Amino acid sequence: MRLQLVAACAAVAVLGLACEKKTDTKPAEPKPAEVKPPEPKPDAAKPAEPKPTEEDVILLGEVGSLTGGQAAFGISTRNGIELALEEANAAGGINGKKLAVRVYDDMSKSDEAAAAATRLITQDKVKVILGEVASSNSLAMAPKAQEAQVPMISPSSTSPKVTEVGDYIFRVCFIDPFQGFVMAKFAHDELHFTRVAILTDKKSAYSEGLTEVFQKKFAEMGGKIVDVQAYSQGDTDFRAQLTAIKKRKPEGLYVPGYYEDVARIAEQAREQGLKVTMMGGDGWDSAKLFELGRDAVEGGYASNHYSADDPTPRVQEFIKKYQAKYGTVPDSLAALGYDAARVAVDAMKRAKDLSGPALREAIAATKEFPGAAGVITLDEHRNPVKPAVVLKIEGGKFKYVTTISP
Ligand code: PHE
Predict the structure, then answer these.
(1) Are 133 and 264 found together in one domain?
(2) Taking the chain (406 residues) in consecutive chunks of 10 residues, what is each chunk's mean pLDDT?
(3) Based on the domain organization, do 211 and 234 belong to the same domain?
(4) Is 44 helix (H, G, I), strand (E, B) or coil?
(5) Contact partners, residue 231, CB within 8 Å, separation at least 6
């Protein structure tokens, strides 16, 4: 695990506190490019004000994949969280206290995510943990948070199992039983497919869950699942599976994986002369998909949490602020990272104190919260119920196609 002294340090530096530098013995990996130096805040320099101490800072924790196969997920999420906390601090923080976040890079690995959660709880004593994106990583962290009674909010893990770990575990995105239904419905009703094959990532709780739901729902609608093949995250050769799939003559191929694998699968499918429409889920959401998959991913469809084409003023306002700060259009990871941090801050404002149980209660009471990726009302299972969008890849980007509501 690697510590990113990003916003934590940024905020701490702003407040004039010492920033403890922690590194581990692992060989250095490239630093995410987007990490920016702290921006000076005008009032921090006022000599008349007493210097704040550590007690004046409310520390949040974040675990993300800043390097490794899902680095794009962690980096976007980080950006969203950073923007949210910057805004919260500019608006006065929580009862005069500033917010800071300590970030650990789990290098896209579950065991590192679990270790990072433990470190945030026992060593950094954070009030709340934000993360992870990949469901398998959140599943590794959640038991630690639950046991320590530290609320954890996953921005974007969609496997239902994540929040089932316990009453301290929340999320701000929809769940896979819905997301899988959305793509099955779209394949059946809009694309009029009757024969679909699935290529699933057997190393991912997310992919397995979506596969199960799609299979069931598409069959219920009268469609036929002609083949289900599997791979393991990070594999580079998918030719055997694609050859088997080709023999079954599907019209569509559902690949509920993450962008790096999906791009390779699309390329190899094309090489093999497999002419199918590819379909997937939120795991496709990264500009990296187009960089790596280029022409091979054109024409594919994916379900997702948000579309940058959404004209809702609240959404466009978020996009404008994000673009001004980072120079890119936010993906759904960034929007959900922003939402998760804002839900945490909102709960801190309402909580009777910042103890785990009080904060847990306040988060659980989140209602009609206007997020960038939809309005959030948490149900009794600590999941929001929100619509999904279907996007189509055209000209190297995602284009909005339709919205499907639960
Ligand atoms: N939903 C995915 C998971 O649970 C993570 C993800 C969310 C990826 C949003 C991309 C965009 O593993």
Answers:
(1) no
(2) 54 35 38 38 46 76 96 97 98 95 97 98 98 98 98 98 98 98 98 98 96 98 98 96 98 97 97 96 95 96 96 96 97 98 98 98 98 97 97 95 95
(3) yes
(4) helix
(5) 199, 200, 201, 202, 238, 241, 257, 261, 265
Please tell me the distance from the alpha carbon of residue 75 to that of residue 81, in angstroms, as a whole number.
Answer: 10
Residue type (1 letter), 221: M
In this prediction, residue 272 carries a pLDDT of 94
Structural domains in the chain (count): 2
pTM of the model: 0.88
Within a domain: 399:
no
Instruction: For residue 295, give its domain range.
Output: 176-304
- Report the pLDDT value the prediction gives residue 15, as an integer from 0 to 100: 37
CA of 283 to the centre of ligand 1 (A): 5
Residue whose CB lies within 8 A of the most ligand 1 atoms, among 109, 132, 133, for a mutation test: 133
Helix (H, G, I), strand (E, B) or coil at 208: helix
Residue 49, domain CATH: 3.40.50.2300
Tell me if the bond preceding 132 is cis, omega within 30° of 0. yes
| Cα 13 to averaged position of ligand 1 atoms, centre (Å) | 32
**Beta-carbon count within 10 A of 147 CB:** 13
The last residue of a domain, from among 304, 333, 350 = 304
How many other CB atoms sit within 10 Å of the CB of residue 405? 9
Amino acid found at 219? A
Q: What is the pLDDT of residue 3?
A: 73
Q: Which residues pair with 79 in a beta bridge?
A: none
Q: Is 155 in the pocket of ligand 1 (CB under 6 A)?
A: no
d(CA 385, CA 82): 25
